[in-house]
Amino acid sequence: MKSLCVLFVAIGLASAFKIGLHPLSDEYIAEINSKQSTWKAGRNSEMDVYPYVKVLASGAKKPNGQVKKVVHDENEDIPESFDAREAWPKCTDIIGMIGDQSTCGSAWAIAAAASMSDRICIHSNGEKRIIVSAQDLLTCGITGGCNGGVPDDAFETWHELGIVSGGLYNRTDQGCKSYFLPNCDDHPTKCTDYVHTPDCVEQCDNATLIYNDQKTYGLENYQVRGEKQMQLEIMKNGPVEATLDVYEDFLAYKSGIYQKTSDNYLGGLALKMLGWGVENGVKYWLIANSWNERWGEAGYFRIIRGQNEAGIEVWVDAGLPDFSKF
User: From which residue to which does the signal peptide run (predicted)?
Assistant: First the structure.
């Protein structure tokens, strides 16, 4: 992707220059590739854009209070590999959607809304194909905005207030409220400008739709934690929202199974986890990012599984649709 839409705290930028390497330079990328063999680094953003990009918190903030935990029976069989897109073929197109958060720290809302959409389709056996609006969650949720939000609060919003339908930028055919920013590659010069959270507007983009009639709801939200519990939750109920501690080298991810080579912490990122597998004896999680399809493996990445790499197995949020309300 021509310009990386969301970057994080300034310490990562400063530390990279201390050792004389620009974090998007060929030299820095070569250094990453020399430190490991499970993934390939490359440039996802032009070097001259980097100094002008506003510094953002990526949006995955940890919950302040106690969150309900769900524990599955670990005696159940778990397959070596699993991909939600293949497990629920009636919902493949919905599960496979990749967002672009652009210059808003909305990953927490995009990942949550994507998981909700997947689960509506999955738990209705493909009969309800409703895209949940990340825009409505971003602007009208309990907390959060372009400065970031708590994934748990996203699912709490779904349970308490409901979230209307709506999908990608300018896609009024996907429901009530579409995302407010175009993809970064569609407006590369604007990707250097920070965007403030829009006001909450309880109105659909399409005047023929009634806002309150477009609301979807979830049951009580919960968390799962640890490798097997996460596998069982995904296998039974569909994709979940996970959080990643982002380190500087992650910005250069191109392909393969990520494991960090840098200690320069940048921030927390919310993501949709939809499966797992094994490649050349290395276990991994399959995860959808929200930096558009030009980043990583067509918008996805894989990360080493079973050792809580970059905190990926700690904060995992989920909820089930409450079909009695919509």
Answer: 1-16
